[in-house]
Write a structure and sequence with these properties.
Layout (H helix, E strand, L loop, with lengths): L5 H6 L3 H28 L6 H27 L17 H28 L3 H24 L10 H7 L4
The protein binds fe (ii) ion (2 copies).
């Protein structure tokens, strides 16, 4: 039917779909844990000492995020995923930091969507938990961008945000 707009369909969210998306988030958290565990230890060179220490802190925070996200998936009656997204490696410290920054950008984009989706479903406490995670992810972005001497990228709010304007 002509009246159903694609944007409206994309903005529809069910609890099952939210659990699926949270499982994607969980796989990204596992990816982040692995990347930060490894990168924090192999980054060498005096100029990377500070960021290597920060990456160790990130690793522990990502584990906390994984636990919080798993709890939400369980609460939604689904089984938490057990597979990380693929982790890239490089011998070049700059490459490693760029991979981390790319992943954090993707994570921030997704959590911004997830908060909106939780609120659409009336899951305000869950939205709040994800907001707390998002604050740390944005700090991770800043740490990485500063170590690379770059501006923090404006990643916007992801596909959901781009569709918001089309909402009735
Ligand atoms: Fe995280
Ligand atoms: Fe992070």
């Amino acid at each position: 039917m002509a009246e159903i707009k694609p944007a409206a369909i994309e903005n529809e969210i069910s609890r099952d779909r939210l659990a699926e998306l949270l499982n994607e988030d969980l796989s990204r958290e596992y990816q982040a844990i692995i990347a930060y565990v490894v990168y924090s230890q192999v980054l060498s060179g005096a100029q990377y000492m500070d960021i290597a220490a920060q990456l160790e802190i990130h690793a522990k925070q990502e584990l906390d995020h994984a636990l919080i996200i798993s709890r939400q998936i369980n609460y939604l009656g689904k089984m938490p995923a057990v597979t990380p997204k693929p982790v890239r490696t490089s011998k070049d410290p700059k490459d490693m930091l760029h991979y981390d920054l790319d992943n954090e950008n993707e994570t921030v984009r997704n959590y911004r969507d997830r908060i909106r989706q939780c609120e659409t479903l009336g899951e305000y406490a869950m939205a709040e938990q994800i907001r707390q995670i998002l604050m740390q992810e944005q700090d991770h972005q800043i740490d990485l961008a500063s170590a690379l001497g770059e501006e923090v990228p404006d990643v916007g709010g992801g596909p959901e945000a781009r569709n918001l304007g089309k909402r009735r």
